[in-house]
Amino acid sequence: MDDNACQGYEDEIQALEEEIKLLTEKYEEIQQESTFFSEEEILKSMKSFQRETQGESQGHRSPSDLKAQLESLEADLSFLMKLTGLQFTSHSKKTVEKTRDRTVQKHRLSGNCHSLSFQLEFQLQEMQSKEKVSSVVTDLNIIMECGEDSGVSKFVSSVEEHGNLVMFFRSLSTYAEWYEHRRRTFLHFK
């Protein structure tokens, strides 16, 4: 073989090694971002975030104040879960794109509302202008067992089309509560 051919192969090998290195770094970054969180980890994260924001806005507090605040937050969370029936069992988040004024993240959520389970996949686009941050939900995909209830499947399709998560959770809470009442009533007559 002549030296030009060997040099060409060596250049190609070096380029492939650099590409492998970049892909390995990207893979490790994605693995770190797309971890699944249990309900306990979500609660710990919420408590930690609340402590940080309270500490920044009100200075340092005594441990007894923090413990009282934590108990209050746990009571509030428990009340909201009882009121709405919503319980999130897992969540994962992956950053798809990040620029100076725009961030796109892909979220996966699963949980249940009373006895109905659900899974959501969506992208959250956050755009930041001078003084305002706006968020838009796109590519919403909802997985739910609707059975033969065509009204629920139409509703899910409508929510997916409009990307309205607030409407989904409000309606799901009400529907699941009445679904549970109907189920118990029919069990009573069987």
From TrEMBL:
Question: Which BP terms in the Gene Ontology apply to this protein?
Answer: CENP-A containing chromatin assembly
**Chain coiled-coil ranges:** 6-40
**Which GO CC annotations does the UniProt entry carry?**
chromosome, centromeric region; nucleus
In terms of InterPro entries, this protein maps to:
CENP-P
Q: What domain of life does the native source organism fall in?
A: Eukaryota
Q: Which UniProt keywords apply?
A: Coiled coil
Entry keyword annotation includes Coiled coil: yes
Pfam family membership, one = CENP-P
- State what protein this is by name: CENPP protein
